[in-house]
Design brief:
Layout (H helix, E strand, L loop, with lengths): L8 H22 L4 H32 L8 H10 L2
Helix pairs in contact: 1-2
């Protein structure tokens, strides 16, 4: 199933922010920053990535509902994708 690029813009923005956060985390480690600060940033980027994944799945589900004649993805496949984020 192909996702609409316009609908994915918010996911792309979220992933670009996460990319920046990861760069910041690497820099924090290289600078010898406090473990608590690093873990806090790791948790934030992890949550951002999870939310991006859920947004992709939600968009896919919406596409399946509004365009049932498109490429088929059965419930088991969608569930497997969703659970892979857990």
């Amino acid at each position: 199933m192909e996702l609409d690029l316009d609908e994915m813009q918010s996911v792309i923005r979220r992933l670009n922010r996460a990319r920046g956060q990861i760069g910041g985390i690497v820099k924090m480690i290289e600078e010898g920053r406090d473990c608590r600060d690093i873990v806090t940033q790791l948790a934030a980027v992890s949550k951002a990535l999870d939310r991006a994944g859920f947004a992709v799945i939600a968009t896919g589900l919406r596409e399946c509902l509004t365009n049932p004649d498109g490429e088929e993805m059965d419930v088991a496949q969608m569930e497997k994708l969703f659970l892979s984020l857990a």
